[in-house]
Amino acid sequence: MAHPSILGLLVNYKWPILAAALVAYVVSTCVYRRFFHPLASVPGPFLPAVTKFYQSYYNCRYYLQVEKLHQQYGPIVRITPNEVHLTDPANYEKINHVGTKYAKSLNYYNATCVPNSTFGTGPNDVHRIRRGALNPMFSRQKVLDLEGIVQDKARKVCARMQTGIDNNEPVDLHHAFRAVSVDVISDFAFGECYDFLDKDDIGAKFFTMAHGIGPALWAFQQFPSLQSLALKTPPWMAPYLSKPLGYVTGMQMECVRQIEGVKANIEQGKSLGRQNIFTTLLDEENKPDAYQIPTTWQLKDEAYSVLVAAADTTGNAMTVAAFNVLNNGDIYRKLVAELEAAFPDLNADLPFVELEKLPYLTGVIKEGLRLSFGVIGRLPRVVPAPGATFNDHFLPSGTIVSMSSWMMHRDTSVFGPDPMKFAPERWTGSIDEVRRLDANMVPFGRGTRQCVGMPLAYAELYVTLGSLFRRFPKGLKVWRTTEEIMQDYEDFFSSYHPDSSKQEWFRAYVEKSG
Ligand code: HEM
Asked: Which of the listed residues 446, 451, 458 should we mutate to test ligand 1's pocket, taking the one with most ligand atoms within 8 A of CB?
C-alpha cells in the first residue's frame, strides 16, 4: 500500500491544518505577550496584555474601563499589548514637557486621519517645524488684535437667548456654544465665517456628522490598513460609503477650494486681505528653517484639524460651565454679583483683559475646563531610547505610555472626596493652593504638544460666558438636562455627549410667570 505524500496530506487536510496553525499562532502570541514580552511584569489583566480587541470592545468608553483597571491594579497598568497607562501626576510632566523626546504614537494619531497636520504629526523634529509656522497665528497678541471676532459671536449668543425668551422657547446653548467655537475659528483662521450662529439649527448638523465619523477612530486603531484605505478614497465616493463621511469630506473640499483661491491670488499678486491660516502657511517669510510650503492637500489637513480641535473642546467647556452656573442658584448669584460690580453698565463692552481679572468667573471657567476634560481619553506617546522607568517598571523604547485628563482632573487626593462637584471656590484660594490644583489640570495638555489654540479658547470662554451672565443676570433656567446626562461622555478624541442633538441636551430658558 502506497504511503500518502506530505503534499497529499497537506492538500487533503488543508482546513484542519490551517485551523491548527492559526490556533498555534494565536496561542504562542498570547503566551509570548503575557509571559515573555518586555511589558510582561506590568500589572494588568490577561486580555489587554494579549490583544487590542479588548480596547476595541470597550471602544469610546475605554477610558472608563482604564479607570477601573487602575482601581484594581494601581498607578501603572498595561492597557494594550504595547501600551501602559499611568496616573501619577509627576509622570505627566516627565512625558509632556517643553523639548520632550516622547513623540506622539502614530498608531493612535494616524487614526484621526490628518497625517499632514501639526496635530497629527508623530516625530518631534517634524512637529517643531510645523508648529513653528502655526504659532504666530494663535499667539495671545493675535487673539487680542482680533478680539472683535469673539465679541461679535458672544453678542449673537445673547441675541439668540433673548429671542428664545421673547418667543418662550428654550435655547439650545450646547450647540450655540459649539457654534461660537466654529464661527470664531472659521472667521479667525480661515477668513470665511461659517455663520452657524445665524442658522436655524445652530450648526447641529455639522456636529452630528462630526460625531458620526467618531467610531472610525477606534476601528482604525484596531485595523490601521483601513485608515490607509480611507485616506485613498476619492472624495466623490465618500457620500456613498457613509453620510457623515460624505458631509465631512464635503467640508474638507471647501477648504481645498479656499486654499486654491488663496494660491491663485498669490500667483496673480492680488491683495490677500486679513492674514489667515492659509496665507500664513503658504508664505515662506518668517518660517522655521527647513519649512516647506505645504501642498493643497497637506494644508487641507491642517485647516480641518484646527477646525475640529477648536469646535467641541471649547464648546464643551462652556456648556459644562454654564449648565452648572444655572443649576446652582448660589453660583449664579455670586458670578452675577462679580460681573455687575466690574461692569455696572448692562450694555458696556466686556473686554477679555478685564474679564480675565475676575476671580470668581475664572473659577467658573477653570471648573468648566476641568469637568469637560478637554480630550477625555489618553494622549499616547512613544518612550524614546534608551527606555524609561515609571513606577519601578522599566519600559523599553518604543513602548507607548499614556495619561488622561479624565483621571488627572478627578484625582481625589487633589480635588477632594467629591471631585465631580463643580466648585469655583476651589480656584479662589491662596496662590499655593491654586498652584497645587493647577499641577493636576491638563485640559490643554502640556509641553511641546500643548494646545496651540489655548489663548483663543480662553478669550472665547471669558467673553461668551461673561457676556451671557452679565446680559441675563437672573431668571435663566436649565430645561430638562440632568447632571447624569451632563456627565456622560463618549471618547472620539474630542468628547461627545451620547446624543447631544436630543431635546434633553442642554437648553436654557426663562420661566414666565402666569
Ligand atoms: C477649551 C478648548 C480647548 C481644549 C480643552 C483643547 C485641548 C487640546 C489638547 C488636550 C491638545 C493636545 C492634544 C494631543 O496631545 O494630542 C490640543 C492640541 C491642539 N489644539 Fe486644542 N484645545 C482647545 C481649543 C483649541 C482651539 C480654539 C484651537 C484652534 C486653534 C485648538 C487647536 C489645537 C491644535 C492645532 C492642537 C495640536 C497642537 C500640536 O500638536 O502642536 N484647540 N488641544
From this structure: 451
Q: Are residues 270 and 365 in the same domain?
A: yes
Domain annotation covers residue 25: yes
Total of domains in the chain: 2
Q: ∠ at Cα 339 (337, 344), nearest 5°?
A: 95
Q: What is the pLDDT of residues 63-96, one digit of tens each?
A: 999 999 999 999 999 999 999 999 999 999 999 9
Q: Is residue 316 part of a domain?
A: yes
Which residue, among 212, 227, 211, 210, has the nearest Cα to 112 in the 3D structure?
A: 227
**Model confidence at 376: pLDDT above 90:** yes
Kindly provide the ipTM of the predicted complex, given to two decimals.
Answer: 0.98
- Give the Å distance between the CA of 444 and the centre of ligand 1: 6
* Domain span holding position 1: 1-36
Rounded to whole angstroms, how far apart are CA atoms 9 and 17? Answer: 9
Please check whether residue 392 lies inside any domain of the structure.
no
| Burial status of residue 490 (CB atoms within 10 A of its CB: 0-12, 13-18, 19 or more) | buried
Distance 41 CA to ligand 1 centre (A): 34
Q: Ligand 1 pocket, 79 CB below 6 A?
A: no
Partners of residue 393 on adjacent β-strands: 390
- From the CB of 138, is ligand 1 less than 6 Å away? yes
d(CA 131, CA 124): 10
126 in the same domain as 218: yes
Compute the distance between CA of residue 183 and CA of residue 153 in angstroms, rounded to an integer.
7
CATH number at residue 212: 1.10.630.10
227 and 132 in one domain?
yes
Check whether 368 has a pLDDT greater than 50: yes
Q: What is the torsion angle, in degrees rounded to the nearest 10, for the CA atoms of residue 452, residue 454, residue 459 and residue 461?
A: 130
Contact 181, 314 (CB under 8 A): yes
* In contact, 263 and 296? CB cutoff 8 Å: yes
Does residue 88 sit within a domain? no
Determine the atom of ligand 1 nearest the C-alpha atom of 138: 30
Model confidence pLDDT, tens digit, residues 9-30 = 888 888 888 999 999 999 999 9
The CA-based angle 160-162-165, given to 5 degrees, is 110
Locate 408 and state its grid cell: 488627572
What is the tens place of the pLDDT at every residue in 471-505? Answer: 999 989 988 888 888 888 999 998 888 866 565 56
Please tell me the pTM assigned to this model: 0.93
Q: What is the 3-state secondary structure (H, E, C) of 261-296?
A: HHHHHHHCCCCCCCCCHHHHHCCCCCCCCCCCCCCH
The answer on whether 451 is annotated among ligand-binding residues is: yes
473 and 347 in one domain?
yes
Distance between Cα 452 and ligand 1 center (Å): 6
CA 210-212-214 angle, to 5 degrees, is: 75
Which residues, including other chains, have CB under 8 Å from residue 459's CB and lie 6 or more apart?
A: 143, 144, 147, 150, 352
Helix 359-372 / helix 296-326 crossing angle, nearest 10 deg: 120
